[in-house]
From TrEMBL:
It comes from the Bacteria. This is argininosuccinate lyase. The lineage of its organism: Bacteria, Pseudomonadati, Pseudomonadota, Gammaproteobacteria, Natronospirales. Residues 51-314 form the Fumarate lyase N-terminal domain. It catalyses: 2-(N(omega)-L-arginino)succinate = fumarate + L-arginine. It is an enzyme of class 4 (lyase). InterPro entries: Argininosuccinate_lyase, Fumarase/histidase_N, Fumarate_lyase_CS, Fumarate_lyase_fam, Fumarate_lyase_N, L-Aspartase-like. GO terms for molecular function: argininosuccinate lyase activity. Pathway: Amino-acid biosynthesis; L-arginine biosynthesis; L-arginine from L-ornithine and carbamoyl phosphate: step 3/3. PANTHER family: ARGININOSUCCINATE LYASE. Its EC number is 4.3.2.1.
């Protein structure tokens, strides 16, 4: 290749892009601005097809496109949909992103009418919609996984509800607890996170399409109709806010994942300690451990440690996204392109983490003998002080008496004189109420999933009246 030919190629990069105007583009600039999009956008392509189909149906409904053209486009999109789901629609670097790849594939599939698919929208609201649909599906999937994991914790707690376990403060034995109370704490934490997920869902449950570049469209489009087609509860009204919210809604999801990670990280830390030889309270099955390359006797809890690291990774991805989206003025800026990588990575990492943990929790074995032996008399010091105070002695006096008996090695508590029968205590853990609330969250997720899936499945029905 001559120097002149190389120079022309360098200057004419991106000649076939959606926004190309026949002006030269430096190859290095093209590569820098395209960045990871060809690698990341396949995850969004199926949702771009779904959003494009709803957009076409809206154009026909609003009288901005003929029924014949709309049907041709929807047939073409329906044929491309399974290819995008299977990852069989490649995005070449010269195509810049999934939008270009999809539009060019549609033109190839449906003919010149494919060039009409972009009427009434910008790449801005197109990508926001695709990402919104992706996030909406991710919320349902992640919520379903967390509900399953919460159920695994309640089931484990139920099997060991009354098994004594030392409760620790400052990493030192403090008061009697139980394996059931300990395990149920994580179920309750995840139950709380499922409740918080409703707020994330409501933020995502509004349709951004129609905002275009951020100022609306000078056409008589019907944004409410598009929202109904896609199963959104409402329209995201202000077009400037649509662009301003890019990154904000994604951060809400990643912050939620970070909070979930905070619940799980404590469980993983406890499990790493409780399964050591020094504690001996619990054991991982051999199938959940790995070996050492030099020490024949070693069985390592790598899955626990890596899962714990994934929890911190989720927190780091949320922090990365917060930095990327902060410090920008209103409306669209190309910085927003960079939010895709941490969001897609966080969702992928979280799904893998939750899948593994749902298998790990029920597999843990409890060593009752070690636990019983660890619950020595001194663990019941606070119980004994409370018993004496309940009999009329001032608590500070009872506290002093018990402390003196422990120091004099003559402490012999009545372990069964008092039990925690208040809500949440060892004697009344509230496991049935927790199970019922988790079941309610499952039903909520099932209803949402059904609503969304029914709407998307209806998109492939050609009769427009089906959506009236």
């Amino acid at each position: 290749m001559s120097a002149e030919q190389a120079s022309k190629m360098k200057q004419n990069a991106g000649a076939d892009l959606l926004w190309a105007k026949g002006l030269p583009l430096d190859r290095a600039i093209h590569d820098f601005t395209v960045d990871e999009d060809p690698l990341l956008d396949p995850a969004l392509l199926p949702w771009d097809v779904v959003g494009s189909t709803a957009h076409v149906r809206m154009l026909v409904h609003a009288g901005l496109m003929s029924t014949a053209d709309g049907d041709a486009l929807c047939r073409g999109l329906a044929e491309l949909y399974p290819r995008t789901l299977a990852g069989e629609l490649p995005i070449r670097p010269d195509q810049e992103d999934g939008h270009t790849a999809l539009e060019q594939a549609l033109i190839q599939q449906a003919g010149p009418v494919g060039r009409r698919v972009h009427l009434g929208r910008s790449r801005n609201d197109q990508v926001i919609l695709a990402f919104r649909l992706y996030l909406r599906n991710a919320v349902l999937t992640l919520g379903e996984q967390i509900a399953e994991l919460a159920g695994a914790f309640t089931e484990f707690a139920g099997r060991h509800l009354e098994q004594p376990l030392p409760g620790y403060t400052h990493m030192r034995r403090a008061m009697p607890s139980s394996v059931g109370q300990w395990a149920l704490s994580f179920a309750e934490g995840l139950n709380e996170e499922l409740e918080a997920l409703d707020g994330v869902w409501r933020r995502l449950d509004r349709c951004p399409l129609g905002a275009a570049a951020g100022f609306g469209v000078p056409l008589a489009i019907d944004r409410e109709y598009t929202a109904r087609l896609l199963g959104f509860r409402k329209v995201q009204r202000n077009p400037v806010d649509v662009n301003n919210s890019r990154g904000r809604h994604e951060l809400a999801l990643l912050n939620w994942l970070s909070s979930v990670a905070g619940v799980l990280e404590k469980y993983l830390w406890d499990l790493a300690l409780f399964t050591t030889e020094e504690y001996g309270f619990m054991q991982l099955p051999d199938a959940f451990t790995t070996g050492s390359s030099i020490m024949p006797q070693k069985r390592n809890p790598d899955v626990v440690e890596l899962a714990r690291g994934r929890c911190r990774e989720l927190k780091g991805l949320a922090a990365e996204l917060a930095h990327l989206t902060g410090g920008l003025p209103s409306s669209y800026h190309r910085d927003s392109q960079l939010i895709k990588a941490p969001v897609l990575r966080a969702v992928d990492r979280a799904q893998g983490l939750f899948t593994v943990m749902a298998r790990l929790v029920p597999a843990v074995r409890v060593h009752s003998e070690c636990l019983d032996a660890a619950c020595e008399d001194e663990l019941y010091a606070a119980h004994e002080a409370c018993r004496r105070a309940a009999d009329g002695l001032a608590f500070r006096d009872a506290y002093g008496e018990v402390a003196a008996e422990i120091l004099g090695e003559r402490f012999a508590p009545d372990r069964h004189a008092l039990s925690a029968t208040h809500t949440g205590g060892v004697g009344r853990t509230g496991i049935c109420a927790c199970e019922a609330e988790i079941a309610g969250r499952r039903e909520w997720l099932t209803r949402l999933r059904s609503r969304v899936d029914d709407r998307i499945n209806a998109l492939w029905i050609e009769t427009d009246s089906k959506h009236e």
